[in-house]
Amino acid sequence: MRASSAWTSRTTSRARRPRLTPDPGARPRPGFRSPGRAGIGDCLSALRPIFRRRRPERRTGLEDPGPSRSGPSSCRMMASEPSSEVSASCPSEGAAGPMKLFKNATSPFARLAHAMLIEAGADLEIELVNQWESPERLVERNPAQRIPTLELDDGTILTEALLIADHAARIAPDGSHLKATSPQEAQITGIAFGVFDAAVYTLNGRMIVSGSFTDTAFDDQPMGLRRRRSMTGGIARLDALADRLSTDRPGLAEIATVTAVDYLRLRFPGAGWLTIPDRLSEVSRAFADRPSLRETAPPA
Description:
Layout: H1 2-16, H2 40-54, H3 83-89, E1 99-103, H4 108-119, E2 124-128, H5 136-139, E3 149-151, E4 157-159, H6 161-171, H7 183-210, H8 222-240, H9 252-267, H10 278-286, H11 291-294
Parallel strand pairs: 1-2
Antiparallel strand pairs: 1-3, 3-4
Helix pairs in contact: 4-6, 4-9, 7-8, 7-9, 9-10
């Protein structure tokens, strides 16, 4: 009962509190309406700009400050960097540097990516590396320690040859032949890619088995024979599709085919099991002087 009485007393006390009602005879202050139910929102709206002006800006140093007004949108001020260093490191508008491609001189994967970037007209800087030595500048960009690795002008890293080739097609100018892709081109590209992938696998197998690229003991093992069939079968399939290849402007299919043919000739000279059909040799010769394929050709 006491608890009930106390509760009743409290509720009765609240019920008896007088309500604040506007004085109809009072003169309102300029710019304000009487604080009736309809005028409270207006009062708050009028006060909000005052509080906003007086409230100091609160910065934690952890948030992304957004684009710099004096530089490109890619510039970001880090909490640990003095503003003087940031202004020195942010390039001016339109001053983006070239992309950087990490490659070696003989990799067919690197050649495919490099040739596509040249065809796209990319502003490119080349850095030759020996990926087997795991150079720090490559490892810090690509944990897989593989080539090609492409560093874009904004610091983004692209890896794997076909992904870089796709990027080249994307940045090519409007109307470029690199943008005219088709399922048939993808078919040829995939076959050619499988050919030089099998060739590289064979060389790696030789290194594992005998420690030498020239020792052919691995080639006669079951896995070596399987890779050989991948190469000979792929070349035969490419020959059957050779009439779909252009001899005027090299797209991805032509670059992949030339890369496959030239790499087999480089790594398996005089091999009795390897024959390059005339039509594929003709495609290779047609683009021998094309800058994208001449400048990326492996050394003899």
